């Protein structure tokens, strides 16, 4: 349940595919945490990749030690491309935007080797900066240039009943992001935590049950600021390597704002791999 992240080289995609992500996030349905903390794209849409958007970018990684990896990347800031203009085929570098989104990240891969006896974990710390111009939340007729942000993510297997080499067990995770410029960042503060358990039912060793809670705080410069919170619980029933059925339940509620009432959502997801 903890596995090494992979990093590409260059091309038209988005930074979300190589930065600020954990393998355990794939166990959730909601977009608040899968594939990344949603605050990063809410504050800067150029962080997102397909679907629907694309951005030109280049990135590189360097293995400092077998357990420590450094990754850096620079990406275009065209909001039209990021929003999927021309069905994701807008590859123009500048359409009113400027500068670049630059990200640096350090990953610590704990007990990830095949010979490791300890329980695996993955810890990530990153910094990002954009010098693009953003609309001010305090005055829609003005702009403010640039912001910086920081994020910290981690997942750790905390229980493994079958011992070393087994993927069955419980993995705890946590995520936190912070943006330095609240006047242009719609969600300057975000955090979340959760637990995934693979093989809770011994007769179903590949099934995964997950629960998670996330909290995103809106900028004080939004006319009616609030914080939105979400709880999700789901169960991945893996029929075979080709098909997974996932019933899931979410509850969303707001603190403050004009409509603080909560909303419950239940659904089922079917995934077929051909």
Task: Indicate the topology.
Elements: E1 10-13, H1 39-43, E2 55-65, E3 68-75, H2 79-82, H3 85-88, E4 101-110, E5 121-135, E6 143-159, E7 169-179, E8 189-198, E9 208-217, E10 226-240, E11 243-256, E12 263-272
Antiparallel strand pairs: 1-2, 2-3, 3-4, 4-5, 5-6, 6-7, 7-8, 8-9, 9-10, 10-11, 11-12
Report the portion of residues in β strands: over 45%
Distance between the termini: 23 Å
Taken in chain order, the helices and strands follow as EHEEHHEEEEEEEEE
* CATH top level label: Mainly Beta
Number of structural domains: 1
- Structure annotation, total helices: 3
Runs in which pLDDT lies below 50 for 5 or more consecutive residues are 8-12
Cα-atom radius of gyration: 20 Å
CATH architecture: Beta Barrel
Q: Main sheet: which strands, in order across?
A: 1-2-3-4-5-6-7-8-9-10-11-12
Profile the largest sheet.
Answer: 12 strands, antiparallel
Number of strand elements: 12
Whole-number mean pLDDT? 88
What structural class do the secondary elements suggest?
A: mainly beta
Fraction in helix: under 10%
CATH fold group: Porin
Principal-axes geometry comes out as: globular
